[in-house]
Design goal:
The protein has a domain of 204 residues: Rossmann fold. Helices cover 40% and strands 18% of the residues. It contains ten helices and 14 strands. Helix 4 packs parallel to helix 5. It starts with a strand and ends in an 8-residue tail after the last helix. Bound molecules: NADP nicotinamide-adenine-dinucleotide phosphate. The site of NADP nicotinamide-adenine-dinucleotide phosphate has 26 residues, from helix 1 and strand 4.
């Protein structure tokens, strides 16, 4: 099986490359090899590579920056996935794509299912939703995995920021009124490998499994709860973690106040359920020092 992986140097993509390469020939691409804003070049790469599977872990993930660069964000988050899906529809390749809890407006009080109404409150969320819709419209064999609050030991993420700030400060002031599911991105990569393995039956992907799935760690917390647990597990208990309101930490982009994902569909279809967020955080901290590099 030949896989083309976009975003292979990103937080999720780095681990994905390692996982997928265990059972397939993986051709990884990042910005150095191809700028996804160049749609003609993207189409040429896919035509030349003729992959069985396209995995798209690339995205315009700078949520605040997207507010002042809607065109750039739409190019990477919506138009590039559309081009990938059109190529997949033409060749019969399977497209695996990642989306976000930020497609929801955060007004719910129970976890969002895949069927819940979307209503993004940011440019990033709107462009990611447009990417999902473009993939569905193109009619390609596809799996869209909506995930949330990703962190790991690489790249830029909340865990690494909190650990760095804990070295510099005695007090961390962290938003306590936004709720979600912190998710260790290595677990999403590992689950993607399992999904792919279960997708194939006699060499062809099982159409009954195509569609959109939520994938996140179990349980719910706030950014403040997450930061407090990081300090506890990392042994930084001298650092005070003070709860603040979203209103006290203004950002260019609005975030949903509640974006917990119901991941039951993934469990029913593939038998995959990620661990509770606290256990995953423990595992991630244990994994420090032996991370995949790309
Ligand atoms: N991070 C989260 O909290 C989170 C939450 C929910 C969903 N997601 C989704 O999960 C997926 C993976 O996210 P992640 O955290 O792994 O993101 P990431 O670390 O920012 O990785 C994204 C990758 O895409 C690449 N990329 C961006 N623009 C590009 C362009 N024009 N051409 C080529 N490559 C480009 C980036 O390269 P550069 O480094 O050169 O920019 C980077 O390697 C994305 O679909 C994201 O929307 C993320």
């Amino acid at each position: 099986m030949k896989i083309v992986l976009f975003g292979h140097a990103g937080q999720l993509g780095t681990r994905l490359h390692t996982v997928l390469a265990a059972n397939a020939e993986v051709r990884g691409f990042d910005r150095d090899q191809i700028d996804l804003a160049d749609l003609a070049q993207l189409r040429n790469v896919l035509a030349a590579e003729q992959p069985d599977v396209i995995v798209n872990a690339a995205a315009y993930t700078a949520v605040d920056q997207a507010e002042s660069d809607a065109t750039g964000a739409a190019r990477i988050n919506a138009e590039a996935p559309r081009a990938m899906a059109e190529a997949a529809a033409a060749s019969g390749a399977l497209l695996i794509h990642y989306s976000t809890d930020y497609v929801f407006d955060g007004s719910a009080t129970v976890p969002y299912t895949e069927e819940a109404a979307t209503a993004p409150v940011s440019v990033y969320g709107r462009t990611k939703l447009a990417g999902e819709q473009a993939i569905r419209t193109a009619g390609a064999p596809h799996i869209i995995l909506r995930t949330a609050w990703l962190y790991s030991n690489r790249g830029k993420n909340f865990l690494k920021t909190m650990l760095r700030l804990a070295e510099e400060r005695d007090e961390l002031r962290v938003v306590a009124d936004q709720f979600g599911c912190p998710t260790y991105s290595d677990l999403v990569a590992d689950a993607t490998g399992e999904i792919l393995a279960r997708m194939y039956d006699n060499g062809a992907p099982r159409a009954a499994l195509f569609g959109t799935y939520h994938i996140a760690c179990g349980g719910t917390t706030s950014w403040h709860g997450f930061a407090s647990k990081i300090m506890q597990l990392a042994g930084k208990t001298r650092v005070r973690v003070t709860p603040i309101a979203t209103a006290d930490y203004p950002t260019p982009a609005r975030r949903p106040m509640y974006s917990v994902l119901d991941c039951g569909k993934l469990a029913r279809a593939f038998g995959i359920r990620l661990p509770a967020w606290e256990d995953a955080l423990h595992a991630c901290l244990d994994d420090r020092g032996r991370i995949d590099q790309r």
